[in-house]
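If you are new to this repository, start here. Below is one unmodified record pulled from the training split, so you can see the exact layout before writing a loader.
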Amino acid sequence: MNILVINPNSTEAVTRGIDEACAPLRMPGGPAIEAVTLKEGPPGIETQQHVDGVVPHLLNCISKNEAAAYVIACYSDPGLHSLREATKKPVLGISECGILTALTLGQKFGVIAILQKSIPRHLRYMGALGVMDRLAAELPVGLGVTELSDEAKTFGRMVEVGRRLRAEHGADVIVMGCAGMARYRKPLQDAVGVPVVEPTQAAVAMAIGRVRLAWES
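And here is the target side for that same chain:
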């Protein structure tokens, strides 16, 4: 019994960060959690074309890798509904799960995006989810996916943006808007002083529940 966590970009450093973020969710008797890289993906998913372009590769990936549940570890949730049509096993997107988790932790959630151009895409998705009245704001750190490995620069900007979301926009919980940010969750929470949701952890936690309770689509 295993949960397959798919990084839809081809950056192995992101997959390693995702794998490390999943470590607290691995437990004796629980489902195995495997993080894999979609080698056909772009280095980072930063545009709608990137989102649309990886869907066939994601479908191919789940057709070749049997699992008890699948997690799409990209904040744009690429191919979420297509994959749900292709398998009866649970398929969870980290954006949807991260936001739903945030709604249980505070009244207003803020999102830290990587780039300004990511925000309109995320807003469309949040509008479709019907959660805009609970959104405090979404602000960017101004770094692409591959730049997130620069820990000092990335963490400094995330702290700055997180504090702005709390102080200027009233966010009482923050969602990290990219799987490549996974390693920064706990120190960011300590620095900003409000709960911080790492969306891959949120999705994997939900997947464990789905698998253990034998809920399928």
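Two things worth knowing about this chain: The chain has a mean pLDDT of 94. Residues 151-169 form the longest helix (19 residues).
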